[in-house]
Amino acid sequence: MTKERKYILIIGAVLLVIGAMYRFSGEIGNLFAGGDETLVRQKQVLKYRKVVREKGLLQERFNVLNRTLSRSESGLLTGGTSALAAVDIQNILNDIAGRSQAEIRTMRVMRPVEPEEGGVYIAVPVQVALDVTIRQLEDILYRIENSPRLLKISNIRIRLPNTRNPEKIQVTFTVEGFMKDKNTAEI
Predict the structure, then answer these.
(1) To 10 degrees, what angle do helices 134-145 and 82-99 make?
(2) Among 47, 96, 135, 145, whose CB has the most other CB atoms within 10 angstroms?
(3) pLDDT-derived band at 38, boundaries 50, 70, 90
(4) What does the pLDDT read at residue 91?
(5) Distant-in-sequence, close-in-space partners of 101: CB < 8 Å, separation ≥ 6
(6) Which helix (H) or strand (E) holds 128?
(7) Is the CB of residue 160 less than 8 Å from the CB of residue 107?
(8) Where are the transmembrane segments (predicted)?
(9) Three-state secondary structure string covering 129-175
């Protein structure tokens, strides 16, 4: 063999060894690095323990939310149908007007508002027209907002029929009560 061929053969062998080391360096490192695997497993165990601890916190939060939902739903109207729920609203409004010594001119039950997609509560609106003083109106609105039933005033119109004597005003407002939709699945 000539000197030139020996150099080419040595350079080729060195390149072959370098190529093999480059190709298999990851696998060789894994053979000698047993400590890395235990670190990875320890991190996984810590992660799983954290998830298990959070489960207890999430369960407690879920229970708190269920209690809050139960308390809130106690203010819903209890009638089996929207007509019975509207009668309940009418009785509440008659009682409030009587306590405030106000005169109800008309009371109309409006068409129930069906829940939106994914909703579970039906709004039952009742429209009321009154002739009251400002003080009586304030008292009525306060009593509606603080009723044990969940009631909402969704629309209000106030007219002053006699500008010379502004003692009495004509008020028309819509009160909405809410009831659970019987057609939706229980959450």
Answers:
(1) 140
(2) 96
(3) confident
(4) 93
(5) 136
(6) strand 121-132
(7) no
(8) 7-24
(9) EEEECHHHHHHHHHHHHCCCCCEEEEEEEEECCCCCCCCCEEEEEEE
The model's pLDDT over 80-134, given as tens digits with 9 standing for 90+, comes to: 888 899 999 999 999 999 999 998 999 999 999 888 887 888 899 999 999 999 9
Structure tokens, 147: 């009723």
Q: How many residues are there in the chain? A: 187
- Token duo for residue 40: 């990875």
Q: What is the three-class DSSP state of 118?
A: coil
Q: What are phi and psi of 87, to 5 degrees?
A: -65, -40
d(CA 126, CA 122): 13
